[in-house]
Amino acid sequence: MKFSEQWLREWVSPRLDTQAMADQATMAGLEVDAIEPVAKAFTGVVVAEILTREPHPNADKLSVCTVDDGSPAPVQVVCGAPNVAAGQKVPFARVGGMLPGDFKIKKAKLRGVESNGMICAESELGLAEEASPGIMVLPATSSVGEDFRRYMALDDNAIDIDLTPNRGDCLSLKGLARELGALNRLAVETPDTSPVPVGHDTVLPVDIASPEHCPRYVGRVIHGVNVNVETPLWMTERLRRSGIRAIDPVVDVTNYVMVELGQPLHAFDRDNLDGGIVVRKAQEGERLTLLDGQEISLRPETLLIADHQKPLAVAGVMGGEGSGVSASTRTIFLESAFFTPLAIAGQARSYGLHTEASHRFERGVDPQLTATAIERASALLLAICGGEAGPLTEVVSDVHCPDTRRITLRARRLEKVLGKTLDAGDVEDILARLGFDVAATADGWDVTAPSWRFDAAIEEDLIEEVARIHGYNNLPVRRPAMRLALRPDNEAGVSQAQLRRQMVARGYQEAITYSFVAPELQQAMLPNAVAPALANPISSDLSVMRASLLPGLVRAVDYNLKRQQSRVRLFETGLVFNGHLDNLSQTPMLGALACGLRYPEGWSSAAKPLDFYDVKGDLESLFALGGSPQDWRMQSGKHPSLHPGQCAQIFYRGKHAGWLGTLHPEVSRQVGLKTEAVGFEVSLEALSEGRVPAFRPLSRYPEVRRDLAFRVADGVPVQSLLDTARENAGDCLREIRLFDVYAGQGVAQGYKSVALGLTWQHPSRTLNDDEINQLVDSIVEQIKREFNAELRG
């Protein structure tokens, strides 16, 4: 918000210079963005009166004027402005004066006629951004010879404050003055807002069809206004210094009251209204031409101000062109309403607009301010434009008006948070000056928030108010209490950093993909997945939450392959989402996908593509980090996105933990992947578990190894053979290893040969052959019984 410092100081004027006052406001949460002079530097300019005006003898567009600038004798000036006339009071730059841009005024001859000075326009004095076609004309009451800077009070600053969205109450001089008054313990002077005399009984009926969006509406008919009068210079100057351009007296008054009190208002030409006022939602197919000339198609969710035949304005945003005030207007209908922030939020932006009114209504306007603001505007309009005011028409829906918020502030809680004990009187004075109603209790205070403070709802809000007005720099600086006792750590766990380092060591690169995927990609890979769809997605191909890491990795691999990366190995950690919003599970997973050559291209290795077992080995290296690889199991399974013959389900301690497999060829075709890719996805929680390593003395006695080769059916899992052998190998078994799988000549069709190497070692003695043979016989017998296996010679 931009405003004039002098205007603010009429409300409250602390004994601080401009910078100190800005610093104080910034420390209180009202950040000052800029402080700029309201006018550029110039000297030698006074108020003057044009006594005579004659045409220039040698130029059609120039005039020769006699000017009284307060000097002993009038001076002659040549002027080229089309609106110059005798009897005008004007700003006049004397010879020797300096205008903005280091332009020095000198005596000159223009087409042979001497000119001693310069009659100035607003732009030449730096009071307007654009060059104006004529000179600046001052009120007839201006004093000739008075210094123009002093007359216009140009030794002023325009202060621009950047407010956070929760402080809509400070989007006015009234709100800012209230803050400065509280900070400096000063009384705030307010303008007269008493009701104006009622001169007629004409009223306009008002119907609120959407009371939940417009709980309060106030209107007034004013007859006999003259909209062709000039807006007073003091008002246009205050508006200019607030960044608002003067238009006509009616619009200027509504803008002035908005800046002064914070309540946006709008004026309609009464003769252009059919019937009464209706506040309603837009109907399908309705269109409206706005005051800026833009024609818009209204959407059903847009709140409108309408009459009984047509829409008049987008509520809280901008009025329509057809019902606006024009030069022929003689009767106006002045409106002041409270629209709920949610009813206005986003409406202006949806039509490509941003107005001062929408900026305020979106943040919240005081619902109790409507009648006060319309009385203030009525008084200004009657004083400037004349006319007679009618009675107020007020429609209120108490059910939909914001509730009064009562908050309990505990003295002990305030002291604990601030780290300082404040006098109860100081606390009450701070809150009272901010407009809160305070009642002392045994434990603290019962506080009622004022109607303009939408952001004050809980105890912490009141503590913040007390802290910022008391001054953050007045609060003690204390180091936070620190508990230095060591917390127990899970030494058995495997950190995500360890898992990442292991994947990098295996040749993978970490990827970070979106948590959202394209619905068709997820449908192709996980047809049975149930995941939430986004209400407002970034784009159509990122519109559902991922139910697996693999879709995102598939897209990342494809992206790299299309950019000449023939060997790609990616992994990712992140959440996957399953279920509906009301019953959503979020599971941390680690996923990987690899394709291309087994090893980087080089002279020492053959150029062979990686396969299922390469990626399986990478996964098993993660299992080994936990120190209990035997707790993990893999068995063949079926997954919609994995090849049916190269797919394994992963179990950890008997519970499902993930999948491993080669991407299904049909899925690869649908997603556009032109090479075979192998990947896995496994629970991060399971991977993070482990055991603490424990020392076991090394045995000094020799190992004994036996190799056993079994002929079994192709469908028998090797893991089952290993489990059975381990269960029957006794306590001295040190290692069991699969070292060969063979199928072909010498092995019947439908069978395979599986060779296991078993190693025994006793910690305190040498094992003899009888013991080993007994264990081997037990293993062979059990495997034959369970799997119908045959021991090969």
What does this protein structure show overall?
- The relative contact order is 0.06.
- The strands form ten sheets. The chain has a seven-stranded mixed sheet with strand order 27-30-31-35-34-33-32. Strands 3, 4, 5, 6, 7 and 10 form a six-stranded antiparallel sheet that branches. A five-stranded mixed sheet has the order 12-15-18-19-20, with no helix packed on it.
- The longest helix is centred in the last third of the chain and has 19 residues, at 769-787.
- The model has no long low-confidence stretch (mean pLDDT 93).
- It has 793 residues and is an alpha+beta fold.
- The chain contains 21 helices and 39 strands.
Sequence-ordered SSE layout with sheet pairings:
Layout: E1 2-4, H1 5-11, H2 18-27, E2 31-37, E3 43-55, E4 63-68, E5 75-79, E6 89-99, E7 103-104, E8 108-110, E9 113-115, E10 118-119, H3 148-151, E11 157-162, H4 173-184, E12 206-208, E13 216-223, H5 233-241, H6 249-261, E14 265-269, E15 277-281, E16 287-289, E17 295-297, E18 303-306, E19 311-314, E20 318-319, E21 332-338, H7 341-344, H8 347-350, H9 356-363, H10 370-385, E22 388-389, E23 393-396, E24 406-410, H11 411-418, H12 424-433, E25 437-440, E26 444-448, H13 459-470, H14 496-505, E27 509-510, E28 516-517, H15 519-525, E29 544-545, H16 550-561, E30 568-578, E31 585-595, H17 612-625, E32 632-636, E33 642-652, E34 655-663, H18 665-671, E35 677-683, H19 684-687, E36 704-713, H20 718-727, E37 733-742, E38 751-760, H21 769-787, E39 790-791
Parallel strand pairs: 12-15, 27-30
Antiparallel strand pairs: 1-11, 2-11, 3-4, 3-6, 4-5, 6-7, 6-10, 8-9, 13-21, 13-22, 13-23, 14-21, 15-18, 16-17, 18-19, 19-20, 24-26, 25-26, 28-29, 30-31, 31-35, 32-33, 33-34, 34-35, 36-38, 36-39, 37-38
Helix pairs in contact: 1-4, 4-12, 5-6, 6-10, 14-17, 20-21
